[in-house]
């Protein structure tokens, strides 16, 4: 299932618009904070799909039964660009465990590259609700490769992909390789990719805008 939050309107679209805006992008702190805010909103939306339980809460004046999330999900993020979204999701699932996994494009030439996954720090994921954060789904290859690597640590009960901007092609590719029950939570869907596999209009290079330009690998 794909949930495109841009269709709901509201202030969420302002965060995504600022993320895309080349002038506002000049402020890396605001860029990171917007990624974090998008992570927060998507975390809230996906929280409605998590298993709930009844809990009796004692206030200073009495008791109230409330429906709350049964278990905190596991939050996995793809380095580097996933880090600010990770913080946003963690702000709402504040007792969650975290996993970090690297994925980067190792170039053979300006258009041709392999995706390298070289680092993974992850607890067991068996029977847990797994959230994977990465702001950009361009081809979907990094997400699928990371998901397959995470499976070395167990089989999750549910999978939620949290992303700011995706192409339809990446969504289709991701859905083909993740379980049928996986949910994709996205801030906007674009149609094109450049020859270098950048999303058009997209926003540019999310990792570089958040953390500074790196030398090409
Ligand atoms: O869907 P794909 O075609 O695989 O592309 C998306 C990937 O590209 C970006 O990472 P990048 O390689 O720029 O690394 P960075 O986060 O270190 O900048 C982005 O954060 C995704 O991980
Ligand atoms: O458009 C894109 C594609 C991959 N990574 C990015 O940061 N942006
Ligand atoms: Mg990048």
From TrEMBL:
Pfam families in alphabetical order: UPRTase
Domain Phosphoribosyltransferase: 15-212
Superkingdom of the source species: Bacteria
MF terms in GO: glycosyltransferase activity
InterPro entries membership: PRTase-like, PRTase_dom, PyrR_bifunctional
SUPFAM superfamilies on file: PRTase-like
Keywords (A to Z) from UniProt: Glycosyltransferase, Transferase
The keyword Transit peptide is assigned to this record: no
Transmembrane segments: none
Protein name: Uracil phosphoribosyltransferase
Species assigned in the record: Wandonia haliotis
């Amino acid at each position: 299932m794909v949930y495109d939050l841009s269709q709901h309107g509201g202030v969420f679209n302002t965060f995504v618009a600022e993320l895309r805006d080349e002038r506002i992008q000049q402020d890396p702190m605001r860029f990171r904070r917007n990624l974090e805010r998008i992570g927060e909103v998507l975390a809230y939306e996906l929280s409605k799909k998590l298993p709930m339980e009844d809990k009796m809460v004692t206030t200073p004046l009495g008791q109230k039964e409330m429906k709350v999330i049964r278990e905190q999900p596991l939050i996995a993020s793809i380095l580097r660009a996933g880090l600010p979204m990770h913080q946003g999701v963690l702000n709402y699932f504040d007792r969650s465990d975290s996993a970090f996994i690297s994925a980067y494009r190792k170039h053979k030439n300006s258009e041709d590259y392999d995706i390298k996954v070289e680092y993974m720090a992850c607890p067991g994921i068996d029977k847990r609700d797994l959230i994977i954060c990465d702001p950009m789904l361009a081809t979907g290859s990094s997400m699928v490769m990371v998901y397959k690597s995470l499976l070395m640590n167990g089989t999750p009960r549910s999978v939620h992909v949290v992303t700011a901007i995706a192409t339809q092609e990446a969504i289709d590719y991701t859905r083909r390789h993740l379980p049928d029950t996986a949910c994709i939570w996205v801030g906007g869907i674009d149609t094109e990719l450049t020859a270098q596999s950048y999303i058009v209009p997209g926003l540019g290079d999310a990792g570089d805008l958040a953390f500074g330009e790196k030398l090409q690998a």
